[in-house]
Amino acid sequence: MLLDKIILTNFRQYKGNQVIEFAHDKEQNVTVIIGKNTGGKTTLVQAFVWCLYGKSTFKKDTKLLNAEIESEFEDRPIGAISEVAVDLTLTHKGIIYRIERRRTYEKTNRAFREAERFTIKQSEDNGETYHMIELNRNKLDEMIRSILPEDLSSYFFFWGERIDNIDSNKNISQAVKDFLGLSAIDNAKSHIKSVVDQYDIELARLEGVDTQVFQRGKDLEKVKQDIVQKKLN
Question: Where is the Rad50/SbcC-type AAA domain (predicted)?
């Protein structure tokens, strides 16, 4: 997985559309983000996690919509709409994906009405054109897990307070299996074992039937011999 670009729209400190493109040069391929405390470095990392998995772990203010945009709603009419979004472009196994999570806020008489939309588009012509992947939400989540399982994301996207908790992840083994495609192999092995077990059961049953048939045949042959012997006598 290679990160290409991320666009943050009204996400926390990032008001408006803020675009960050990541270095792809073979020699100079490191992008360094520098900022003061509370400048948005942790928020940037959280944006990746929210975009991919729909989760955020902000300890204090858990709101995602930019504070200035939210305050402007006070002077806007009922029905006014604003959005917070993260649009992530990445390359995985030669395919370019655009993954977008967008949350819409609509002003009502009391507060906000929220609605969230999650989409994945893909391109196979170097990003010239994209087409929407038409799958239900569960299938889209499965696609994200195939690119980067959530339990492995802590090793790719982390911030200060999460470093100490990285090794405590109990699902890392399963996540690695998912990431490497080993879960499919495990499932196939389990399925084959169940088929073989069922075959053994059926075989044993048939062998039992064959034994009974063989014994009945012997009994019948003995009866025939007894009949012949009686006729001779």
Answer: 5-228
Burial 59-74 (b: 16+ CB within 10 A, else e): eeeeebbbeebbeebe
Sort strands 95-107 and 112-123 into parallel, antiparallel or unpaired: antiparallel
- By CB atoms closer than 10 A (0-12, 13-18, 19+), residue 209 is exposed
Residue 210 clears pLDDT 80, i.e. is over it: no
Domain shared by 133 and 217, yes or no: no
Q: 3-state SS string over 80-99?
A: CEEEEEEEEEEEECCEEEEE
The 3-state DSSP class for residue 180 equals helix
The verdict on 191 and 89 lying in the same domain is: no
Q: What is the rounded end-to-end Cα distance, in angstroms, of the chain?
A: 93
pLDDT at 118: 95
* 166 inside domain: no
More confident site: 63 or 173: 63
Residue 123, classed as helix, strand or coil, is strand
The percentage of residues in the chain with a pLDDT greater than 90, rounded to a whole number, is 33
Do 13 and 109 share a domain, yes or no? Answer: yes
pTM of the model: 0.67
Label the pairing between strands 81-92 and 95-107: antiparallel
CATH code of the domain covering residue 37? 3.40.50.300
Q: Give the pLDDT of residue 159.
A: 61
The pLDDT tens digits for 132-141 are 999 898 999 9
Partners of 227 in the β-ladder: none
